[in-house]
Amino acid sequence: MPIYVQDKRLLLPDGRTLAYADNGNTSSSTVVLYLHGTFGIGDASCIAPILLDKNVHFVAPSLPGWGESDAVPSPAHYSETLQHDMTALFIHLRLDATQLKIILCGYSIGTMAAQMLFQKSQKHGILVMFNTINSNFSVWKRSHPSRWHSFPFRDQISSMILLAPYSPPHCDPEYARYMSWKAYMYTGPPSRYMPFNILARFMRWVLMSKLASEALAERYVRRLLFTGLSDDEREHYTRWRESRGLPEGRVETDLAGNMVRSVAHSWKGFLDVPAVYHSGWGGVSPAQANKEADPAPVYIVAASRDPSVPVHCAEWLSRAYRNADLRVVEGSHISVLLHLDDLWSEVLP
Description:
Blueprint: E1 5-11, E2 17-24, E3 30-35, H1 49-53, E4 57-61, H2 78-93, E5 101-107, H3 110-118, H4 137-143, E6 157-163, H5 181-187, H6 189-193, H7 198-208, H8 214-226, H9 231-243, H10 250-264, H11 268-277, H12 286-289, E7 298-303, H13 311-320, E8 324-329, H14 335-338, H15 340-347
Helix pairs in contact: 8-10
Pfam families: Abhydrolase_6
Protein name: Alpha/beta-hydrolase
Keywords: Hydrolase
């Protein structure tokens, strides 16, 4: 029987706090690391039934600066800090971790983080034999400085799922060409050159009133994600909701609550997104992943009418990653999540 506790806390070696939730079989060798999107937090309260059936361990951290997770000291070094944080989390969750099968799953801004973890070091021998190391992560890091070039669990990543993905702007010369005007101002070229992060700060000022309470946030969620659904999308959504035993209105309420909690502690996660997006991602390049003899498969799902992230990014990624599978579903931003169950049945053995 799975044991679920929401909003766990981990004190990181650098003194920061990482919030996370997990669910499913905590002893399973198959781990799904889910990285949430904008205005999200680590939430494992309602995972897909197939993940429970397959005895998967579902792990959902709150990304730095969101929810109760402390922000990174410097967005310019986001990739390195993220690798440290996720390694500390994995060591905390299991002491013998050499036989894991990790499935990375990122949604929206979480796809940036997923690709940072997916990037393999150019140096070999990155896998750490955890049965021989001190469980104190800070001691291990000081003892192995030459190995600290990428996520130490990278060799155990069996696949990566990117939902409504961002392409790395330092690799994709047309990343901003098809953006909506809101996305263009938030993460496009203007965000790089306007001083004091003024565009993101203005957006925060606009959004603060919409997220001042869960009731206001729920009204915003309904208008943003559900008002414009087509009949087919609404039917698909109803089937998806009922398959999880959720009453009508529960999803909207949960999303609104998570949005409010995502910025209740700090807006730093939201304000850091433009700088993180243009940080270079720690040198992430799909071309580097393609050099592997047998690269892990990359599953990409985008929605045809998504105003948040243009389909172009998914199409670019599908061409950039050698072992990519692209699926463009008819619908809006939330549609990619509704189609995720179909993908789980293919990815999981």
